[in-house]
Batch of 2 targets.
Target 1
Amino acid sequence: MPSTTEPTSRETSAARAQIGVTGLAVMGSNIARNFARHGYTVALHNRSVAKTDALLAEHGGDGDFVRTETIEEFVAALERPRRVLIMVKAGEATDAVIEELAAAMEPGDIIIDGGNALYTDTIRREAAMRERGLNFVGAGISGGEEGALNGPAIMPGGPAESYESLGPLLESVAAKVDGTPCCTHIGPDGSGHFVKMVHNGIEYADMQLIGEAYHLFREALGFDAKQIADVFTQWNSGDLESYLVEITAEVLNQVDATTGRPLVDVIVDAAEQKGTGRWTVKSALDLGVPVTGIAEAVFARALSGSRAQRKAAAGLAAGALADKPTDVEQFTEDIRRALYASKVVAYAQGFDQIAAGSAEYGWNLKPGDLATIWRGGCIIRARFLNRIKDAYDNDPALPSLILDPYFREAIETGIDSWRRVVATAILLGIPVPAFGSSLSYYDALRSERLPAALTQAQRDFFGAHTYERVDAEGKFHTLWSGDRSEIQA
Ligand code: NBP
């Protein structure tokens, strides 16, 4: 690649790399190789030099790399404005690396944090770097190690000016769908990491819903892993086509070499989590957005991990109010429709959270842009995202995704199936927290009256918290401990 700027006083003839990557574990190495494969000269740095040398020894042939050992050498190897991508463990390690880099960099240079940072940390770091004249870009990167190498979805936040210099590099290594890069400038400061966090929350919900569908096939229909794999393979050629459905079929087809049993049957059923789902729910609680599908997914992982409690509770009565479904074809189609409808709800809730975050922080986020860049590269990539993009193209102010005519019809067509699946699961004692809570959310949203009127009256009774009336403006209070007349508050 040609040099993008004229040399400056502090630049040496060695300053020839267009991008530097520090943190060369699996994600950093792969994204560094991705840049090199796209013709960029990439300066390499890692705290322990061994990882840098391992990368060069194994993949040095991928392109033009500059080996460096110290941060000073690393910074000196870069063209201006210098662009450094940090791919280290999120948290304190990121702060330590930022501090070291900032001391060696010059005003106008760009620090990109590609780790899974908490967005509030990114807001703090961006402000601190801005004060020092540096551009700080918090970039969410999704797609795991495979995506990092072959094209991830990238969600860069930070100053718009820095995207002018950085955008073309990021867009060239990002995944492409119909020629459109899965990367766009998201908005100021922490917005990139915020939307990546919600992306991960949606990923949790999506995985939980797929897990519940799988469980229903096992428990209600008595399917084995291979039979369920075949159903997911078939679903992957329709509306549910997605990376997660595709890999579910592959996982279910995997046979354990030791026992000859399906691998999934020998894996301990306790799901772990690294924290982004939990962050999404905490943020949603603060913003007051009901992300019930994501929350149920986070709690379901926690419950699965409560191994001592589960062991103690195993064998508790289940009750037996229903027979297993006999029409296998019908119930399979019911599960497909329930999965699709619940998935629409999970995405609708995630996009609501994005809208609320955008309003809270003044980010002016565009949901249609996010649907566009999530179509490829990332873990939640799906045919479905095209529909979401169309929905926001048709109406950028859509009050809820489920009100888009396409999704509304999909839900209304599948509503009886959805209810049959949830009712059958409940009667058979099969846990379906995400299917069930998504259906309750839908029912609550479409209800003209909710029991919240009673809640308001109770709050007014014990705490004089006041209420509004359906037939008059203003706030009111009933003198509950007096003569029970009503006064205007
Ligand atoms: P890790 O998250 O395992 O981090 C390992 C890297 O951090 C190594 O390069 C290590 O250097 C460096 N590091 C640590 Br630990 N402490 C450091 C410190 N105090 N100063 C400097 N460097 C330090 O690597 P990863 O799995 O490649 O992930 C990198 C980032 O990307 C993380 O923030 C992660 O959350 C995010 N992410 C990961 C995925 C994924 O699928 N794995 C997907 C999307 C985003 P050393 O070699 O000297 O120990």
Target 2
Amino acid sequence: MIKVRNLSKHFGELVVLKDISTDISKGEVISVIGPSGTGKSTFLRCLNLLEVPTGGSIFIDDVPLLDKHTDVPKLRQKMGMVFQSFNLYSHLTVLENLTIGPVKLLGMKKVEADEKAHELLKIVGLAEKAYSFPDELSGGQKQRVAIARCMAMEPEILLFDEPTSALDPTMVSEVLAVIRRLSREGMTMIIVTHEMEFARNTSSRVFYMDEGLIYEEGTPQQIFDNPQKEKTKAFINRIRSLNCHITSSDYDLYGLQGEMEVFCEKHMLTRRVTGYVLHIAEELLVLQKDLSDVSLSLSYSEKEGDVELKCDSAGLPFNPLKEDALEDDIGLKLIRGRCRSVDYFYEGGRNILLLRIKGE
Ligand code: ADP
Ligand code: MG
């Protein structure tokens, strides 16, 4: 359906897209992930000619998009784009937002457009908001209207550029649910997103973008569980773990615990498990002999639902959780009770403690 060959895009001296080639079939759902500034938005914008590519070619259903004989407006109508900021017409009702395009651009009859719009509003769960104005809606509702408005133009391909990143966390899931529904109905979609769980569960393929390329691509399992290339690995690891470096005994314990709490919340750990994690991290730090160079890292294992806490500190060999030291210390016994495993080793002048905290 979409064929991209050697696509490049430069902004003056800046080479944003170097050489992108890919084929996307009908019904595929592609998630595009990667650090910011790697050209994810530019890639989407080139696909529907919001940006004119510097080189290469794009074919939509075998029609060359960049050929000067191509009817670009017609081809572009096959693609709808949903932006981070919803771009609704604030002086029009929700219904009018949905009908203006079909009536003015597709020449649809008003009654027909109205009927279609009501149907679409049902699909995105906003049937009762047809006569509201955008300002009367929450961010999540606005974005669902924006999606319905896109659908009203009967596109064959939907492009989403970070559709949830301008939303309050509480509203992310309602928008993702709508996108998921469209994917089940067989819509072809390309979604730039930072919602990794969503990317994993919903897409057929994941593109990791970096260095002006689709640096690595694969199934969600390949990209998230077994990335092959260095930068992909680094990116995936970074989003899956929290790293803190402590350099003196004056470290900010509450700040650290706050960050850990946010991390636990993001992975939907229970309050109880979050409490254990914070408590165990604090105990571990109290037990350190030397706080001049300690790294704590927290990572979540999706498979088992456990949390791994790694404490890596410089100094002479010293294991604060050694069995025989444990006998009469209740705090340490508690730690062991809450962990599936506790491993210690000494490597390259550093004490490494690996605790696997039970996820439930
Ligand atoms: P991403 O979406 O991955 O964060 P973008 O595609 O938005 O990345 O941007 C990639 C790079 O291109 C950035 O360095 C950005 O500043 C630059 N860029 C994007 N659009 C323009 C533009 N219209 N003019 C000049 N530079 C741009
Ligand atoms: Mg972007």
